[in-house]
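Give me the fold.
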Amino acid sequence: MPGKKILVVDDEPAFVSLFKSRLEPAGFDVCSASDGEEALAKVNQEKPDLIVLDVVIPKMSGYEVMKKIRDNSATRRIPSIVISGKAGMKDFFDGMSGVEFMQKPFDLKLLVDRVEEILGAAAEKGQDTKRAVLIGVEDFLTNKVRALLHSRGFQVLSATTESDAVRLVKSLCPRLFCVQFWEDESILNSRKLLEGLCSNSSASKTGMCVYCSEASSIPAMQLFQHSQLLVYKDSEDLVSKMASFLRKQGYASAT
């Protein structure tokens, strides 16, 4: 993946700067454009491996830019992520091959993970990548789980909402889906996650790991199978039980 070129098209310098700060240290080459006309020029000049395009930009809308890119035989195959604050804009891009849509506001980490995933998939050309999708409520626990998965060689994609998590599992068929069970369903609805995954047969190939505190274990047991649950006392207990779970699944090391 390092060395891949990404064109980010957005008229907000702060977003462009933050995006660059997350990807350039990993070895990606990030170029930018602040309006539609400059975007088309940069596509032809820079020949990016991926485009991140805001819909609302000066001189030409993101839709017009993407239509011109897709109408050009030399650029139509460039994978692209379109971002917008209006959910309804997704309908305009649904018929365009190789174009994904993300609604603002979103966690930048989710966008960065998706960029890495798309470029990684293109670079690996079908190699069996160890992927895990992770969704949780408490950041300090989520970070510990993520670090453990990384140490076992997993590429970890973080989801911020139930719909994001279901989309990632359905589209990527990861080896593991790790979920923090939370009793307040208005914050994280495990029932909604299960319903979304049950509607897709390919999701059955993904192993599921649900971690919950002892205080939440009874309602968690009513939803999930015993073999999927990790009931923990504290963060260290969670790491220990997660490590044991991974060993049993054959993920004792990064290889």
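The longest helix spans residues 108-124.
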